[in-house]
Structures are given as structure tokens and as C-alpha cells.
């Protein structure tokens, strides 16, 4: 059992992570927020033993083994490093950092302190993802010719930090991290190159973005993300002997059956809580088992996201 602290009682922490910690048999020792009232309300809902009005107080608690960083993107690096330096293991909301340089700094601190640092991409822990990876790597659809990953999400509210570029805003960082991670896992190697396009708002924040990826094993990958479009998300893998399709690829919940299609027909279905499985996988890494998602994985994704944003066409104001 891990004793958890939460930095930032946000929506995902409220709806998914705190319930997952409880379901996995862990203890929510402390929740911290910039608002003590908000922390107290969150703590009352989820049975936290203490609520604090400052993040530092969570890190100072001797009965906190691990911290979930559920803060805006631009605060991930600083508070994850502070937690690692305080001797805590860290599960950090995606993206791990604003760029690869930040992810590298975080990974270096984790290595120096001997603490687990993991980027919280829950879709990797769904059993359907395990089945998809196994089928692709067993070459059940032959050699991979094309991988397409798409995530069109709801537009954030007008005052959301994701509309501020300096705070890590934009669809590429918010949603593209899922698409790029999935493509990397599926091909099992790092891509050769990536070229991006985007449509940005007047502040230069990418609302719609696409990328074409030169896969190291041959073939092409495409990643497509957007804010405010129809809420669609999928992964398609086309091989020389068939295809695999994953509807609701990234945020399938515990209450929804997760289906995998082969050549357009269902070939398997699963119902599981990927957040609970992620918390369990993180705890196994803390106990000394190999981490499913070591910080080097997040760093590799961050390098590609950096390249995507760097090669995207000049922002065109709408």
C-alpha cells in the first residue's frame, strides 16, 4: 500500500485518480491546493486524512510516500522536482514537462534521488492496449505500413490555461502526447523524423494540428489533434496482411466496453479501469519492479512533440 499526496485537486484527480487510489487499496494521506477550502472539500469527498492550503506542506509530510502532480502544465517540472528532492515518488499528469529539456531535468533528478518518476498516460495500462501491442509485435497483420492516431477533444473554457502558450497550452501538448506515445509504442522504435502543420488562434496557441511521421521500421505515421471539434479519438494500424482499429482509444472509462477491431470486425473487448491499473503499475515500480513507463519514455515523446511544434507552419490567426 502506498500513502499518497495529491498536489492540485483538479478534475482528473477528482474523477479518476483519487477513486483509483482507493480501489487499488492505497491511502490518500494528504491533498494540497492553493485554496485550503478546495483541498478540504476534495479531501472530504475522497477520505483524505489531511487537507493543506500549500503544496509544500504535502511534500513535508513524513507519511506521504508518493505524490500525484495534478497541476497546470507549466507547474509540472518545478513541483515534480520538489517532490523528488523531498524523497517522494512522483506520478505526474501528462505532459511530463513543457519540452524535452524539462523532461530531461526531471529524469536526472529522479535518477539522482533514486525515486520513481512516471508520466500518467492511463491508456497505456488498459488491457486492450496490451492486446493491440501484442498483435502488432507478433506481426499478426504483417509489416506495419501506416499508423494513424487521432484525438479531437472538447475546447477548454475561455479562461483555461491551455489557451496560454507560455503555460503549455495548445492541442499538441495537451492531446498530441497521447497520439505520439501510442505511435512510438506500436512501432517499438523511435521515428526518424516528423513534419507538422497547425492552425493557431491569435495568441499563437495551436487549436488544430497534424503531423506526418517517418517511421524507423518503414511506413508512415500520422497524428491529428484539435480543440473544439467533434469528440473523436482512434488509433488505426494498417499492415500488409490486415488492419487493427481502436475506437475511443485514449479515454475509455471503466463504464465503457473497450473494443478492438481487426479488419473491421470485433476481435476482442475489455472492461477495466485504466487509472486503477496505472496506480497499481506505479506501485509495482516503487516496490522495485520494472516501470512500464520510465521517464526516458516521456523524454522520447517530448523530443518528438518539440519537433512537431518546431516544424509546424507559422501560426495562422483565425
UniProtKB/TrEMBL annotation:
Keyword tRNA processing: no
Residues forming coiled coils: none
Transmembrane segments: none
Protein name stated in the entry: Gfo/Idh/MocA family oxidoreductase
Naturally occurring in which organism (per UniProt): Egibacter rhizosphaerae
Signal peptide (residue range): none
Domain annotation Gfo/Idh/MocA-like oxidoreductase N-terminal: ranges: 2-120
Pfam families: GFO_IDH_MocA, GFO_IDH_MocA_C3
Keyword ATP-binding on entry: no
Record-annotated GFO/IDH/MocA-like oxidoreductase domain positions: 132-244
Gene3D superfamilies assigned: Dihydrodipicolinate Reductase, domain 2, NAD(P)-binding Rossmann-like Domain
UniProt KW keywords: Oxidoreductase
Gene Ontology terms, MF aspect: nucleotide binding; oxidoreductase activity
Family recorded in the similarity comment: Belongs to the Gfo/Idh/MocA family.
Amino acid at each position: 500500500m502506498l500513502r499518497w499526496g495529491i498536489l492540485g485537486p483538479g478534475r482528473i484527480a477528482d474523477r479518476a485518480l483519487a477513486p483509483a487510489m482507493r480501489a487499488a487499496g492505497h491511502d490518500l494521506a494528504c491533498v494540497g491546493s492553493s485554496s485550503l477550502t478546495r483541498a478540504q472539500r476534495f479531501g472530504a469527498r475522497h477520505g483524505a486524512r489531511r487537507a493543506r492550503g500549500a503544496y509544500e506542506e504535502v511534500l513535508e509530510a513524513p507519511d506521504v510516500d508518493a505524490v500525484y502532480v495534478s497541476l497546470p502544465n507549466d507547474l509540472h517540472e518545478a513541483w515534480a522536482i520538489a517532490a523528488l528532492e523531498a524523497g517522494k515518488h512522483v506520478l505526474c499528469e501528462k505532459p511530463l514537462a513543457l519540452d524535452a529539456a524539462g523532461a530531461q531535468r526531471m529524469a536526472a533528478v529522479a535518477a539522482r534521488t533514486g525515486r520513481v518518476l512516471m508520466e500518467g498516460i492511463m491508456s497505456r495500462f488498459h488491457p486492450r492496449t496490451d492486446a493491440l501491442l501484442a498483435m502488432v509485435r507478433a506481426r499478426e497483420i504483417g509489416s506495419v505500413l501506416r499508423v494513424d492516431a487521432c484525438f479531437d477533444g472538447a475546447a477548454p473554457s475561455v479562461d483555461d490555461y491551455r489557451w496560454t502558450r507560455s503555460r503549455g497550452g495548445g492541442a499538441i501538448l495537451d492531446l498530441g502526447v497521447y497520439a505520439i506515445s501510442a505511435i512510438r509504442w506500436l512501432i517499438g522504435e523511435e521515428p526518424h523524423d516528423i513534419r507538422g502543420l497547425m492552425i493557431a488562434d491569435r495568441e499563437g496557441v495551436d487549436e488544430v494540428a497534424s503531423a506526418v511521421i517517418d517511421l524507423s521500421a518503414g511506413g508512415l505515421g500520422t497524428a491529428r489533434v484539435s480543440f473544439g471539434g467533434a469528440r473523436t479519438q482512434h488509433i488505426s494500424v494498417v499492415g500488409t496482411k490486415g488492419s487493427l482499429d481502436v475506437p475511443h482509444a485514449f479515454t475509455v472509462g471503466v463504464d465503457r466496453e473497450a473494443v478492438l477491431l481487426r479488419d473491421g470486425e470485433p476481435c476482442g473487448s475489455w472492461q477495466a479501469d485504466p487509472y486503477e491499473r496505472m496506480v497499481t503499475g506505479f506501485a509495482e515500480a516503487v516496490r522495485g519492479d520494472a516501470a512500464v513507463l520510465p521517464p526516458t519514455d516521456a523524454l522520447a515523446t517530448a523530443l518528438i512533440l518539440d519537433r512537431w511544434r518546431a516544424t509546424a507552419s507559422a501560426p495562422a490567426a483565425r
